[in-house]
């Protein structure tokens, strides 16, 4: 059995619900696990809807996560916990709650058969001869690890998919977060990452979880399944399979008309989110969803003629 897991705080539950809807639309049949800091921190209407779905739909399990760390740095530990709690699982895919699945689940689920599956970031090109790669090699040696891979691609931390047999990769990722993660930024930052992350790419551990994941990919002795940045919509190559709304401007928060008039039309991920915001979990009433869809179309029309360069 294959589980999809995610971690949410506050209104990110809206994203998790749309993620679940998109999985169901693409024939997902496993367990959907939502990590959170406490039920009272989540929007009650959406929580109630997620807990009252018909029995024939994929099961949703809510798990309270006790950690002082920002959830972005807790992903590896959470994946390991869910594997421990569910011995029946053969594979786990972690997906950020601001991702919408836009391709057949059977194919997406197969990626990890070739090794831990990861995908390129928006700033995806850090090749073998990039100065940061040399810094990462030096960091690995400080914790008695050697590089075995040197990918062309800088990996995004929003999707990691592994078979149980490759669980040591997740343990390696967690170890690197714990041992090297606080080199440049705190592990216990609060709120949106942009509010507490300091520095830039000149810092080898600028983004603790993501840079640690890239280090783990280098130090891993087994095979890897590395997809390009097009998978999340960060580069051209066809419609994204895992549309990812990176940054602080989330689809459930956007004001599409006013933003289109400022030259920021709806993105592919905004349209995908709205498409999957109604069933089987209803994030809005039917009338509200119809209104939001019309606004989205109007904003997209404005975007055809006016956008910020």
In brief:
With 309 residues, this protein is α/β, with parallel strands linked by helices. It has helices at residues 12-25, 44-50, 75-85, 105-110, 131-142, 167-180, 193-196, 208-219, 256-261, 268-275, 286-305; strands spanning 2-7, 31-36, 60-64, 91-95, 99-101, 117-125, 153-163, 225-227, 242-244.
Word description of this protein:
- By secondary structure, the protein is an alpha/beta fold.
- The protein has two domains: 2-232, Spore Coat Polysaccharide Biosynthesis Protein SpsA, Chain A; 254-305, no CATH class.
- The protein is 37% helix and 17% strand.
- It has eleven helices and nine strands.
- It has helices at residues 12-25, 44-50, 75-85, 105-110, 131-142, 167-180, 193-196, 208-219, 256-261, 268-275, 286-305; strands spanning 2-7, 31-36, 60-64, 91-95, 99-101, 117-125, 153-163, 225-227, 242-244.
- The protein has a seven-stranded mixed sheet with strand order 3-2-1-4-7-6-8, covered by helices on one side. It has a two-stranded antiparallel ribbon with strand order 5-9.
- β2 (31-36), α2 (44-50) and β3 (60-64) form a beta-alpha-beta unit.
- α3 (75-85) packs antiparallel against α6, α6 (167-180) crosses α8 (208-219) and α10 packs antiparallel against α11.
- The chain is globular and about 60 Å long.
- The relative contact order is 0.15.
């Amino acid at each position: 059995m294959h589980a999809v897991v995610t971690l949410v705080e506050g209104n990110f539950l809206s994203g998790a619900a749309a993620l679940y809807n998109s999985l169901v639309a693409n024939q997902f049949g496993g367990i959907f696990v939502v990590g959170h800091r406490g039920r009272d921190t989540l929007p009650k209407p959406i929580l109630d809807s997620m807990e009252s779905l018909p029995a024939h739909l994929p099961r949703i399990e809510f798990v309270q996560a006790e950690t002082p760390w920002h959830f972005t740095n807790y992903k590896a530990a959470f994946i390991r916990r869910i594997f421990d709690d569910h011995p029946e699982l053969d594979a786990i895919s972690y997906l950020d709650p601001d991702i919408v699945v836009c391709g057949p689940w059977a194919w997406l689920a197969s990626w990890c058969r070739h090794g831990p599956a990861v995908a390129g970031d928006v700033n995806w090109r850090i090749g073998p001869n990039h100065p940061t790669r040399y810094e990462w090699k030096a960091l690995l040696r400080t914790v008695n690890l050697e590089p075995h891979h040197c990918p062309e691609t800088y990996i995004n931390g929003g999707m990691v998919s592994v078979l149980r047999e490759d669980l040591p990769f997740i343990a390696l990722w967690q170890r690197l977060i714990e041992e090297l993660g606080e080199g440049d930024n705190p592990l216990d930052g609060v709120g949106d990452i942009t509010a507490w992350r300091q520095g830039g790419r000149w810092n080898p551990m600028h983004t603790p979880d993501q840079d640690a994941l890239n280090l783990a990919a280098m130090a891993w002795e087994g095979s890897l399944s590395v997809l390009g940045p097009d998978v999340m919509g960060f580069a051209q190559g066809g419609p994204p399979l895992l549309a990812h709304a990176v940054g602080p401007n989330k689809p459930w928060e956007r004001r599409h008309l006013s933003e289109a008039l400022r030259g920021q039309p709806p993105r592919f991920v905004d349209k995908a989110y709205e498409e999957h915001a109604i069933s089987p979990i209803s994030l809005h009433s039917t009338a509200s969803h119809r209104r939001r869809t019309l606004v989205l179309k109007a904003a997209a029309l404005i975007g055809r003629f006016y956008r910020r360069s």
